[in-house]
Amino acid sequence: MTPLRLSLSELRRLTSGTLPRLAVLAMAIIPTLYAGLYLFANHDPYGRLDEVPAAVVVQDRGATTTDPATGATSTVSYGQDVADQLEDDGGFAWVPTSEAAAEEGVRDGTFDAALIVGPDFSADLVSAGELAPHQASLRLVTNDANNYLATTIANTIVGEVRDAVASQVGEEAATQFLDGFAEIHTNLADALDGADQLLDGSGRLADGVTQAHDGATTLAAGAQDAADGAADLADGASALHTATGTLADGATDLSTGATALDTGASTLADGATDLSAGLDRLRDATSDLPADARTLADGARQVADGNASVAGYGDQAAQAADDLVAGLADARTDLERTLLDQGVPQDTVDAVLAALDDQVGPLTDAADDVRGAADQLDALSAGAQDVADGAETLADAAPDLAQGVADAADGGDDLAAGASDLATGAGTLADGASDLAAGATSLDTGAGTLATGAGTLATGTGDLSAGASTLADGTSDLVDGAGDLVDGTTDLRDGLADGLAQVPNPDDDTAAATAETLGDPVAVDASELSSAGTYGGGLAPFFLSLATWIGAYVLFLLVRPLSTRALAAGRPAWQAAVGGWLTPFLVGVVQVLAMLAVTWFGLGITPVHGIGAALFLVLLTATFVAILQALNVWLGAAGQFLGLVLMLVQLVSAGGTFPWQTLPEPLRTFHHMLPMTYGVEGLRHLLFGGDPAAVWTAVAVLVAFLVGALAVTTWAASRQRVWTVTRLQPELVL
């Protein structure tokens, strides 16, 4: 009796009546009912979440934000945005309500979840842009007594909303920070331009101060020469005053001794000749005195005017230095206000201002030096003016002195010429002596004035020389200060340039892209190598495998696992084993094909490899039937019960829902040992289009289980040729 005939015989037995036929039909559709109904119920639960009631409570009072670039204000209400997003994006059926109603609804089951947006939600979100950050929060109220998965889904939905709001707020905050950086960059650029202008002005000031120092040095040397000349002039004028005094005394004696003219005519002729020669020499010596005095007066006046111009330039330089220091103070105040307005921390602002103060200190000291030099120039100008006035007086008196000397020389000539007529011109001599006395007196007075003016000139030129020396020394310090000013402004300019280079200044497109990236720095690019499509599709490999085991299990409630007739007839044990396996296998093929057809065409879960999936399910039912047959043949009723226990173990260890790595021990060990694991794995790759190598691995393992189970059944069949008491009267019958 061949295995096929044994199978046909068992099929005739099973279908020998109406009820048996109905029983076989029921067993054939049990896997389809199990898998089909379960997959239909869980086909796409996430697509119906909009029917799950949930409450949303918006208590947000809103907030006001200020654009740092324009100063414009706007009102935001992120809490209402959250509610609008929940209603637009779906998820649950969100119902706006009050906080008390929401909490009561979650408690009594009216709502599966409630999301409460607090009154300070918007204010907390915008606080980061104001450098006073407060973390905003959403309160999610759930109740696992209503539905545990509803709580999990609510957490997921609220997490997605939180991420969306955080991305939006982060982008807006990043935009404000970038706008602030742009404003700082613009202000630093303006400050750098001002520093360049300041550096240019300080360079010109340094050049002017150097020229002033050179002029002051030249002036000091000239003033010293003038002082030496004035001293020589004073000595000559003093000697002249002494000589004219003697001349006046002689003229007086001449007038007195006119009565003795007759007796002293010869002596008078000799004296007159000598006097005429001396007066000629004196006239020659004083002939250029008016012109020299006028030249000296004009030179002193030019020196005074030059000193006045230099003093004016010094005052202008001092005023420019004072304006520079005042401008730096204003710039420091503006910089501090701008940094604080842009949200720069106070300690950073203080560090920037301290660095600026270190650079401004040398400028202030240089400005003080410039003011001191200007005051010295003013003093020098006043002294030069006094010298010019004294020289003017000397120049005015010099013509009278020269004229007096000339008159005296003429008188001496007349005296010499008239000496021969002395005897006869006693009256004339008396008159001439009187004139001579008057002229000598005038000469003496002019000589005294000359001596006084020369002394004043000597004193003035001495003061001029001392002032010029002081000016030269002062301008030397001013030159050093101007050099420090140039160095300081150079450091300021370089520091501002370095700071400007470090402050970002993106264009509008780059700033917008940067703000968007900072708000949402990570983008997930999902790449699906295969897709189940729906939740039910994802569970299909597990429930198809489980339904195949259940279908094989219920078959052995009617089908005999081994033909006793074949054993009694002495047929080979393998034929009896295969014959007992073939009948439930054929019914199992009907089971899995019907189940696959309903899943494919009824539920819309389309396999990527349809024929492969059908063949794999045939192999799967063949393997499960062989395993359950072996259990029934070896253990009888206990084997039937063990098949149920084995189904339960595989149900929790096959990894059909959660990843198998999440299983605790020893279920993780059972995962690799039991056949349903490989049934689920193979169906996943066939239904969703995965790795063919994994399918072949699953096929190899299932074939090994099939062959092993048939071998074990064949061994049991060979042993059951001998009837025992236990077989005749089993302890447990199902």
TrEMBL record:
GO terms for cellular component: membrane. InterPro entries: ABC2_TM, Phage_infect_YhgE_C, Phage_infect_YhgE_N, Serralysin-like_metalloprot_C, T7SS_ABC-Transporter, xxxLxxG_rpt. It is a multi-pass membrane protein. Keywords: Membrane, Transmembrane, Transmembrane helix. It comes from the Bacteria. Pfam families: ABC2_membrane_3. The chain crosses the membrane at residues 21-41, 539-559, 580-605, 611-634, 641-660, 693-717. Residues 531-713 form the ABC-2 type transporter transmembrane domain. Signal peptide: none annotated. It is found in: Membrane. GO terms for molecular function: ABC-type transporter activity. This is Putative membrane protein. It comes from Sediminihabitans luteus.
